[in-house]
Amino acid sequence: MSIQPTDIAIFLVSFAACVYCFVLSKRLKALQNTKDGLGATITALSTSIAQMSSTTQDTRVRVESMATRLAHLIAEADKTCQKLEAAIASVDTAKASATDEVQTAQMDLYMMMRTVLDQSKERIGEMTGIMRQMRTMTDEVSGRIEPVHAGASAPLPVRSRSA
Fold this sequence. Notes:
By secondary structure, the protein is an all-alpha fold. The chain has a domain of 107 residues. Helix content is 83%, strand content 0%. The chain has two helices and no strands. The radius of gyration is 63 Å and the shape is rod-shaped.
């Protein structure tokens, strides 16, 4: 049997293919290694994705809870605002009513005091007139009474009133 150049070429190509397959096998084993290679990277990425999904789900639950709570607080704030507006309107109405009542009371008091003062002036005038009459009568009576001597008991003259 003789070796032909094509056989040598096939042998060399086959040998090169074996070497190339051996190198590829080593590289694939390195990539599949879960400690250092691409497998470790894929495992780490898978773990990160799982954690991220879990965190995203927790965040969604918290956001929904906070949104519900916020909606409740906004509703309460709206109710409180309405109550405050009603209270302010009530206070304004009460203030206006109280102001009217105070003004009415002041006018009534003014009128009453005016009436009392007018009546007091009339009474003072009457009293002044009576005092003048009493003084006049006293002066008249004192001018007509005779001095009484010691030991003599003479009755005092009684005079009738004349107006």
